[in-house]
């Protein structure tokens, strides 16, 4: 199956062509073009929905043409069109979904309305031969969840954040330290020079039972710490960044360890794998911590390549291919969903056409 994937749910406009072998092996990425709108949003220190939607309109058609050209394919070579149908900023989601519907209708191709989070959740199966079920730590700009991925469209949630998402916490802390936008990579860079042991920051919910997360208290502690320093210099900022990153990694590792204990009841020994996905999965310190935790619990640790962790079209194309292989396609009247939990109804909204 050869699928065009379109991603427009946040601030990257992306198009990709991915091929999934009939026998269900790993995917071949024929093209994967991501246009990041960072420059357009940077002056505002965060994503401005209206600017994002307009930029998607402006760039998407050109990106799709380039994705096909780089893949050396014609429209006739495609088996389906997959687009993010949510969750995300509704204006952007509408742009991508409408475009996909137009192509699907004009070319007589099946439409696959993909949940963006399912795109993150299944990415590791595109690059590694990874059977179901597996434990997933999904850490992105809008979500922080621990799930057992039982199959395509089948997710059992073990825990979620009760306040901020991890990526959001990285972005907010980077902003208050004046490290720039986007915050996650900037904070990780700053932390490289920092001393993580200089400041003692709280580790919310650590060593407590359960798999939920909380990050707002940590964020508040960082703000108070920064304010207490008056005008933190570069060394102070690096030390705060390192301390924050370490606290986050400690919390995520501890909660993931609880989740592995729970998942032991659902996944047989010898088949136990921990996958981390979403933008924050690009963080090197987090990867190292989770590697240690996974091995301590007898889990193999699987993480997609860096550039497939943050938003891209290939992950949407791949999720589309996985769904199409199961005969899961969506009617042209499928509507966009600003909110769309992964463990709820994995089927997109019906009848609310855009
Ligand atoms: P969602 O997937 O929940 O809808 P999103 O699509 O905006 O949200 P992603 O693109 O998956 O999120 O991830 C972006 C987030 O990842 C941002 O919050 C960013 O700061 C964070 N991030 C990216 N790289 C790193 C890094 N190296 N370290 C920490 N955080 C990072
Ligand atoms: Mg983004
Ligand atoms: Fe994402």
Automatic annotation (TrEMBL):
A GO molecular function held by the record: tRNA N(6)-L-threonylcarbamoyladenine synthase activity
Keyword Hydrolase recorded: yes
Keywords: Acyltransferase, Cytoplasm, Hydrolase, Iron, Metal-binding, Protease, Transferase, tRNA processing
The keyword tRNA processing is annotated on this UniProt entry: yes
Cofactor note: Binds 1 Fe(2+) ion per subunit.
Function (record text): Required for the formation of a threonylcarbamoyl group on adenosine at position 37 (t(6)A37) in tRNAs that read codons beginning with adenine. Is involved in the transfer of the threonylcarbamoyl moiety of threonylcarbamoyl-AMP (TC-AMP) to the N6 group of A37, together with TsaE and TsaB. TsaD likely plays a direct catalytic role in this reaction.
PANTHER family: TRNA N6-ADENOSINE THREONYLCARBAMOYLTRANSFERASE, TRNA N6-ADENOSINE THREONYLCARBAMOYLTRANSFERASE, MITOCHONDRIAL
NCBIfam families: gcp_kae1, T6A_TsaD_YgjD
Protein's name in the database: tRNA N6-adenosine threonylcarbamoyltransferase
